[in-house]
Design goal:
With about 200 residues, the chain is an alpha/beta fold. It has a single domain, classed as Vaccinia Virus protein VP39 (Rossmann fold). Helices cover about 35% and strands about 20% of the residues. It is built from eight helices and seven strands; from the N terminus they run αααβαβαββαβααββ. It has a seven-stranded mixed sheet with strand order 3-2-1-4-5-7-6, with helices on both faces. The longest helix has 20 residues. The N and C termini lie far apart (about 35 Å).
């Protein structure tokens, strides 16, 4: 189980909030994602797209100390914080639409809570597929439940619970349909209020 002290290492508000319910949901989500990583088979290198401060890759890198971790993010500031927390994770400023020039190959690509922010999520999937990873794990908010959980906590009420930076909304069926255009969906599950998929490039 992720200890509270791990959450407190980060500056991102969603991790800093000390809500027991929120942290329990994140712990369950990370546990399920970790299971998908293990289900991906032997992994020696992992790339996370939209790595941010490194909450996921940092946790996994400490659980899997022999695996090489890399991260891409549009925010140089977030990557600087990541490097202070997890100096062995290699980082690069970039975006999900252009993953060329990375020092792969990568056995596994993680793309967690990114696609809902993109106006052209299919372009990001093309970029991931171009890396030819053996497996990819992708996650998005599970709608409408993500919005309902926001409303229940009093967040984004004037937007009916929708985060202002979310420009896409997915349920299991629409998420599977998007992924299936580029990947074979090996497993798809929910961990309230998120959807997780383990995939392989076609």
């Amino acid at each position: 189980m992720i200890p509270d002290a791990y959450f407190d290492r980060f500056e991102t508000p969603k991790y800093r909030r000390r809500s027991r319910v929120r942290r329990a949901l994140i712990r369950r989500f990370v546990r399920r994602l970790h299971e998908f990583v293990l289900d991906a088979g032997p992994v020696s290198s992992v790339l996370e797209i939209g790595v941010g401060e490194g909450f996921l890759s940092g946790y996994l890198s400490e659980k899997l100390p022999t695996v090489r971790f890399s991260g891409v993010d549009a925010s140089a500031e977030a990557l600087a914080r990541l490097q202070r927390l997890f100096p062995r994770i290699e980082t690069r400023v970039g975006d999900a639409y252009d993953l060329s020039g990375l020092g792969g190959p990568f056995d596994l690509v993680l793309c967690a809570e990114v696609l809902e922010h993109l106006h052209q999520p299919a372009r990001a999937l093309d970029a991931i597929a171009s890396l030819r990873p053996r497996r990819a794990v992708l996650t998005v908010p599970h709608e409408p439940f993500f919005r309902l959980s926001n409303l229940a906590s009093g967040a984004n009420v004037t937007r009916l619970g929708n985060d202002p930076e979310h420009v896409q909304q997915f349920g299991p069926r629409s998420f599977r349909k998007l992924l299936s255009s580029r990947f074979e969906v090996l497993a798809l599950t929910t961990s309230y209020p998120w959807i997780l998929a383990l995939t392989a490039p076609r």
